[in-house]
Amino acid sequence: MNYHWNWGIFLQQVQSGDETYLDWLISGLGWTVSVALAAWVIALVLGSLIGTLRTVPNRWLVLLATTHVELFRNVPLLVQLLLWFFVVPEFLPRDLSLWVKQDMPAKEFVTAVICLGLFTSARVAEQVRAGIQSLSRGQKMAGLAIGFTLPQTYRYVILPMAFRIIIPPLTSEFMNIIKNSSVAFAIGVLELTFQARQMQEDSEQGIETYLAVTLLYFIVAFAANRGMALIERRTRVPGYIGGAK
Amino acid sequence: MSFFTQFDFSVIAPSLPFLWEGLKFTAKLTLIAMSGGIFLGTLLALARLSSITPLAMAATWYVNLMRSIPLLMVILWFFLVIPIFTGKPMGAETSAIITFTAFEAAYFSEIMRAGIQSVPRGQVFAGQAIGMTYWQTMSYVVLPQAFRNMLPILLTQTIILFQDTSLVYAIGAKDLLKAAEIAGKNYGRPLEMYVFVALVYFVVCFALSNLVKHLQSRTAIVR
Fold it and tell me: What is the pTM of this model?
């Protein structure tokens, strides 16, 4: 093995300007976290709605929600991203299409967030559905029996329980969304993977670069994991396995 | 309405042979990574569950490491590091096959571990009681049951793997997506190509996931 180690590389200036390589990585980290968090908001809101709709007693709503899930689950994320970036603008009305292509601010970022959000919403929806279906039927009946309407039953009885049950799989999805945000490099979002490739080419210190970037992904994933564990502890329901005493 | 009239799907037909080559590599990569991943994954799962502490710890570390970094980073890592170690340049395709096998092994090992743990302990004792060695107990008693229990999940993971192979785009391996991109450039119609490959991926994954659902209802063991 023949490799020149240079751990000082991070503090050296990049070839084209007065930033250091560390600056590149930190800004990449910022974009990674921004993309992941913004997309997570979309995924949670939309995923909860779609997952709930898959359990309601209305054939058409169930069909609509199922179509959403199947559509976004069965096409690779990277392909979806390229579709959103290159193809979808062509299908917009002419003026809007021109605006998106020419003037839209932070086009790459917005596209990545929408794409990743919708992609993950299908996965979140499946977890929400599983959570709702894991409750005993008695819960729903009890809600209806005390005079709640169906939406009220969902709001006050079913969903508060279902969400608590699915926190562990949602934690995995949250960590997945951070990892999946790396795909955004393909449309030019300057996130961590993009910066890793750029720094590797610019500095020719590939191993140090990738080690640092891997460590950064590790730290973010770990922080996300701990954050979700905190929420899990705070929302435990007494009387369940792992619940508060 | 400009776009529908602008869309020209007649470029698909002449590029089909080229796309087929791409799809063949995607399929090859998926199948090798699946079989290799399940084999190595099973060994990793056995290592994690073994009573030899250093072995269990090493396996746990490997699995957790692979599962906490993005696949894209792993692809870039292997592509960079393998040539440094071997001292020879390596093609993107070979690198992709090695990467996916090593990466998927971590995910398959978690599935196999759950499968092994779903087998009642009495089965192991029964195997030992009739004089079987560790490997005999595993390969004749425990693993067949674990495998059967986990078959739907193994297949679901394979569908995810099939989709993830599109990420070899990052190192320029010629899979279905890359072939579509090249064909799109050659004919000057990249958009039609993206739509077409999305359709191909969708049809394959949708069909496979329905097959899994069917299988799930067929292989469920009545206890």
Answer: 0.90
| Nearest chain B alpha carbon to A192 | B73
Contact A43/B at CB under 8 A: no
Tokens 């394959």, residue? B204
CATH class of the domain at B16-219:
mainly alpha
Contacts of B71 in chain A (CB under 8 A): 179, 182
| Residue A191 CB partners (closer than 8 Å, separation 6+) | A28, A31, A32, A35, A181, A182, A184, A185
Contact A179 B69 (CB under 8 A): yes
Determine the residue of chain B that is closest to A225 in CA distance. Answer: B68
Query: Does residue A119 or residue A202 have the better pLDDT?
Result: A119
Which of B68, B100, B193 should we substitute to test contact with A (largest number of A Cβ atoms within 10 Å)? B68
Average pLDDT over residues A16-32: 90
**B81: contact with A, CB 8 A cutoff:** yes
Domains in chain A, start-ordered, CATH in brackets?
34-180 (1.10.3720.10)
On whether any CB of chain A is under 8 Å from the CB of B98, the answer is no
Tally Cβ neighbours within 10 Å of residue B60: 14
Spell out the domain ranges in chain B.
Answer: 16-219
Cα–Cα distances in angstroms (integers) from residue A225 to residues A214, A232, A233, B61, B65, in the given order: 16, 10, 12, 17, 14
Identify whether the C-beta of residue B201 lies closer than 8 Å to the C-beta of residue B163. yes
Q: What are the tokens at A56?
A: 């309601």
pLDDT per residue over A99-134, tens digit each? 888 888 889 999 999 999 999 999 999 999 999 999
CB-based contact B104:B34 (threshold 8 Å): yes
**B68 has a chain A CB within 8 A of its CB:** yes
For chain A, what is the radius of gyration of the CA atoms?
A: 22
Nearest CA of chain A to the CA of B187: how many Å? Answer: 16
